[in-house]
Amino acid sequence: MGNTNSLCGRKGFYNKETLISSVGNNSSHDGIRTIEAVKSCSFSRKSDLCIRIITWNMNGKVSYDDLVQLVGKDRKFDLLVVGVQEAPKTNVAQLLQTASSPTHVLLGKAKLQSIQLLLFGPKNSQPLVKDLKAESQSVGGCGGLIGRKKGAVAIRINYGDIKIVFISCHLSAHANKVDQRNEELRRISNSLISKDKSTHDLIVWLGDLNYRIQDVSNRPARSLIQNHLQSVLVRKDQLLQEADRGEIFKGYYEGTLGFKPTYKYNVGSSNYDTSHKVRVPAWTDRILYKIQDTKNIQTTLYSYDSLDQVNGSDHKPVKADLCLKWINS
């Protein structure tokens, strides 16, 4: 374990007291601590475990070419974790296995209708895998043609004596459903984390959390993004606002939102929604993590970014590269 890769970090962001006032920095939140990805273009050679984490709402469609871009060509990480929402009925796991070969093989998967979580590891890594378990928790949704139920799936794994739980979720949509999303997170956490008596060194949440931009209308939001000032909108992000209030994700980390909002796009392009709905752009797709054993494990975030070149959905995928190291080994 502990490979190198050519992956660059992102620069930080800045906030404004209002959308037109002067700049004021603030990267810490009561619930979520926002950190910059390391400005290095490689995974650490001294890491004990390096993980690539990807989340993508597929909008019920799949393209093998998109999956190839999702996985990437330079795959010198240990674990590859892919969480998808609104996945089509096509066998996404099989397509991803083909796209990730010959370097990685499927170790485990979890599924709740269109919510899926797929875990890949290097070939011949089975001896490092212990206690792999898949779980799910529904929180509502009507299903529909592709089964767009809301909820979460989880994979627990002991990999090389590092105990990890990955949770991929899809929460309720629309800007006015903040309290409902908070309650869904609490229900999922209670079911998939709190009731589990075993300990975890690392907890990773990924998915379409569906939190939106609060009290900013479409035109000013798009104008800021067009002028590469989307960082001004970070202060209005509902997820960070709810974390500030102590409602969700206490003690978690997230990379800086240096990339453009990942929803909603015209399918097949990198242009924001021009349909009759004309959604306000938002960072609906997120990756967060929490270290339980801070005395013995050190983490480094090497990248946190969207994959703008993937155009097959109305969402852009989000990718994080995370490395762990035993401090006292």
Provide an overview of this structure.
The chain has 329 residues and is α+β, with helices and mostly antiparallel strands. It has a single domain (39-326), classed as Endonuclease/exonuclease/phosphatase (Deoxyribonuclease I, Chain A), CATH 3.60.10. Helices cover 15% and strands 33% of the residues. It contains five helices and 15 strands. The protein has helices spanning 64-71, 92-100, 178-194, 218-226, 238-244; strands at residues 15-16, 23-24, 32-35, 49-57, 79-85, 104-112, 115-122, 129-140, 150-159, 162-170, 202-208, 252-255, 285-291, 297-306, 318-326. It has a six-stranded mixed sheet, with helices on one face. A five-stranded mixed sheet has the order 8-9-10-11-13, covered by helices on one side. Strands 1-2 form a two-stranded antiparallel sheet. Helix 1 crosses helix 2. Residues 3-29 have low confidence and may be disordered.
Descriptive terms for the model:
329 residues; alpha+beta; Deoxyribonuclease I, Chain A; six-stranded mixed beta sheet; five-stranded mixed beta sheet; 33% strand; globular
What's the SSE blueprint?
Layout lengths: L14 E2 L6 E2 L7 E4 L13 E9 L6 H8 L7 E7 L6 H9 L3 E9 L2 E8 L6 E12 L9 E10 L2 E9 L7 H17 L7 E7 L9 H9 L11 H7 L7 E4 L29 E7 L5 E10 L11 E9 L3
Parallel strand pairs: 3-12, 4-5, 10-11
Antiparallel strand pairs: 1-2, 4-15, 5-7, 6-7, 8-9, 9-10, 11-13, 14-15
Name given to the CATH homologous superfamily: Endonuclease/exonuclease/phosphatase
Overall mean pLDDT score?
Answer: 87
User: What is the percentage of strand-forming residues?
Assistant: 25-35%
- Please give the share of residues in helix: 10-25%
Overall 3D geometry? Answer: globular
Q: Could you give the order of the helices and strands?
A: EEEEHEHEEEEEHEHHEEEE
CATH 2nd-level architecture:
4-Layer Sandwich
Supply the helix-strand structural class: alpha+beta
Unreliable spans are 3-29
Radius of gyration: 19 Å
Overall number of structural domains: 1
The neighbouring-strand order within the major sheet is 6-7-5-4-15-14
Count of DSSP-assigned helices: 5
Instruction: Briefly note the CATH topology name.
Output: Deoxyribonuclease I, Chain A
Specify the CATH class.
Alpha Beta
Number of strands: 15
Largest sheet: 6 strands, mixed
What distance lies between the first and last C-alpha atoms, to the nearest angstrom? Answer: 14 Å
Organism: Brassica campestris
Family: Belongs to the inositol polyphosphate 5-phosphatase family.
GO molecular function, one term: phosphatase activity
Pfam families: Exo_endo_phos2
